[in-house]
Amino acid sequence: MTLKSKTALITGSTSGIGLAIARALAAEGCDVAINGLGDAADIEKERAGIAADFGVKAIYAAADMTKPAEIAAMIAQTERELGSLDILVNNAGIQFVSPVEEFPIDKWDAIIAINMSAAFHAMRAAVPGMKQRGWGRIISTGSAHSLVASPFKAAYVAAKHGVAGLTKTVALEVATHGVTVNLISPGYVWTPLVEKQIPDTMKARNLTREQVINDVLLTAQPTHEFVKPEEVAALVVFLCSDAAKQITGANLSMDGGWTAA
Ligand code: NAD
Q1: Of the N and C termini of the chain, which has fewer Cβ atoms inside 10 Å?
Q2: Does residue 205 belong to any structural domain of this protein?
Q3: Residue range of the domain that includes 87
Q4: Is residue 68 in a domain?
Q5: Residue 220 covered by a domain
Q6: For residue 142, what is the domain's CATH number?
Q7: Could you tell which of 14, 191, 218 is best to mutate to test the pocket of ligand 1, judged by most ligand atoms within 8 Å of the CB?
């Protein structure tokens, strides 16, 4: 229980990687605020489950990550209800796959807002409290696509490269305040986000489902294995530890060797 008395907000934690991160932080004794879209009853079940399984305080902070005012209100709610915000995990994200000339403008705007600008708005609101307390951890879920591109993912690749730059900038600004800012960049993790892009990738590349999984997704990763949400969560927990306090401004790949090639 290394994070007892700490508090965390994990955006996009009603599913996939974010949910694994919320549970891993709670397992270390951290009080958590979860956020994300979904059925109200399912979200309440998840919130209550975290509280019961780990004996921590768990709240739900509703905010649509496309809305800057809702993001600021979510940070304020977390600080008010949990007493502080020590760990911010910017994780909410969506994907859309299409050739650039057909890329719907509303999808571009939504991906830039949720996958990139939301991290700025959350950091902007969370940094003052962290500086005041002299301790903080800001971790964003990047992607191998923060370092390299794949065709048909113009908005996603642009947004993830943007968060990589934002991470480095804010890390420099808060370096003397006990606050670290890092990006974790996974390869393909088997979550609803990956599952949902398979039909569009089949269409864009004229492939079968099996071909997309084996010849597009897993072929990118030399280990030929998906990353597990729990593996990303374990790195988040490590970055929150005192042993990791000199790791800041880093983009940590967890991609089965993808970006080594
Ligand atoms: P997911 O679809 O399982 O979860 C996405 C979460 O974001 C959900 O909780 C969803 O409700 C939330 N969300 C989406 N739009 C939102 C909005 N407007 N407001 C609030 N919440 C919103 O996907 P995941 O795979 O767990 O993805 C989580 C993060 O990991 C994303 O940033 C994604 O880009 C990144 N990532 C995923 C993979 C992968 O292969 N799955 C790889 C690298 C990076």
Answers
A1: C
A2: no
A3: 7-189+227-260
A4: yes
A5: no
A6: 3.40.50.720
A7: 191
- For the chain, the domain total comes to 1
CB 18 within 8 Å of CB 92: yes
pLDDT in tens, the chain (261 residues): 689 999 999 999 999 999 999 999 999 999 999 999 999 999 999 999 999 999 999 999 999 999 999 999 999 999 999 999 999 999 999 999 999 999 999 999 999 999 999 999 999 999 999 999 999 999 999 999 999 999 999 999 999 999 999 999 999 999 999 999 999 999 999 998 889 889 989 998 999 999 999 998 999 999 999 999 999 999 999 999 999 999 999 999 999 999 999
- What global pTM score does this model have? 0.97
**Secondary structure of 132-165 in HEC code, one letter for each residue:** HHCCEEEEEECCHHHCCCCCCCHHHHHHHHHHHH
Q: Are 23 and 229 in contact (CB under 8 A)?
A: no
**Ligand 1 atom at shortest distance from the alpha carbon of 140:** 32
Sort 143 into a burial class: Cβ within 10 Å, 0-12 / 13-18 / 19+.
Answer: buried
| Ligand 1 pocket, Cβ-based, cut-off 6 angstroms | 12-18, 36-38, 64-66, 91-94, 114-115, 141, 143, 186, 188-189, 191-194
